[in-house]
Q: What sequence folds into this?
């Protein structure tokens, strides 16, 4: 088999995942795109391992390790997303701007800023502040 | 030696006379890429997770075509079996809308598209230019059968394997700590 086929497929899958990471708003969809990127790397590792006929089979061993690390990553990532959703009531990555450096970055265009104030007003009881501090700590 | 074998193999194969396994690889690859594209562009969140199943299953078939049999089944077990189920659980627990959600894509979609197309162009150009005359020799015994995998994994890669189990334990503990409700502080 020509080596260019798996290599090109892996490159295209990686770029698809890259688009998803940059363009998606829901955090879980971002995690799905990260999975696509990791799978593209796995395909590259397997193809080059089969091509090189390595006696250590480094490519396949690293693919197994990548799969296991991706499973751990998705578990931790979903736990973080669920914690954020419990504290903020939203899993949109565009709205998590507490650590933005400039004031200009905190103002969102359009009606989203109003929505943020709305959700914060609901949760701006003293308990809400404590929760927020806990989330940022 | 590998290069010599590849060169000898390349004497009787070319772009214009693809073998059956290459045709199968390209067809499954087109299906995989299409499913991945639908995954990152669809507006229905649950459908994105289900199309991700198609993309990951297609990749498992690609591993089978590359004679990496054990990795193909690990892919089916871990990705299709557990990761996608976890993602679906996450979608349900964060109360994702079931129908079409108009704000699934963020505002910088066109910048993201530009970055992705530029990266795809550069990567495909470099890869095709580098591996234009390189062939994989798929004949002979399978390189990723379960026996071979067990041999190299437990003969050469034992220490990373054990370290990986520690990492999985740490991830387990971390996920439990992160998702635990702090009833003591909230009451």
A:
């Amino acid at each position: 088999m020509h080596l260019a086929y798996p290599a090109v497929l892996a490159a295209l899958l990686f770029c698809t995942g890259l688009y998803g990471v940059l363009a998606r708003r829901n955090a879980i969809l971002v995690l799905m795109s990260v999975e696509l990127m990791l799978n593209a790397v796995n395909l590259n590792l397997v193809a080059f391992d089969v091509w090189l006929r390595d006696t250590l089979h480094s490519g396949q061993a690293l693919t197994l390790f990548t799969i296991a690390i991706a499973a751990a990553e998705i578990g931790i990532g979903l736990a973080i997303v669920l914690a954020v959703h419990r504290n903020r009531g939203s899993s949109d990555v565009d709205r998590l701007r507490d650590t933005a450096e400039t004031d200009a970055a905190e103002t969102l265009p359009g009606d989203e800023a109003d929505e943020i104030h709305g959700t914060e007003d609901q949760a701006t009881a003293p308990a809400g502040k404590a929760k927020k501090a806990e989330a940022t700590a | 030696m590998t290069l010599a074998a590849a060169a000898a193999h390349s004497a009787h194969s070319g772009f214009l006379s693809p073998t059956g396994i290459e045709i199968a690889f390209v067809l499954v690859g087109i299906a995989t890429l299409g499913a991945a594209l639908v995954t990152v562009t669809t507006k229905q969140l649950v459908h994105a997770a289900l199309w991700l199943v198609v993309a990951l299953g297609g990749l498992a078939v690609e591993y089978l075509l590359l004679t990496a049999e054990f990795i193909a089944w690990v892919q089916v077990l871990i990705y299709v079996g557990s990761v996608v189920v976890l993602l679906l659980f996450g979608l349900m627990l964060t109360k994702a809308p079931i129908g079409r959600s108009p704000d699934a894509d963020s505002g910088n979609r066109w910048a993201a598209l530009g970055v992705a197309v530029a990266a795809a162009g550069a990567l495909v150009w470099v890869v095709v230019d580098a591996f234009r005359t390189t062939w994989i020799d798929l004949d002979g015994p399978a390189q990723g059968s379960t026996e071979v995998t067990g041999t190299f994994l437990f003969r050469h890669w034992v220490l990373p394997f054990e370290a990986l189990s520690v990492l999985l334990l740490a991830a387990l503990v971390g996920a439990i700590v992160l998702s635990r409700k702090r009833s003591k502080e909230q009451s």
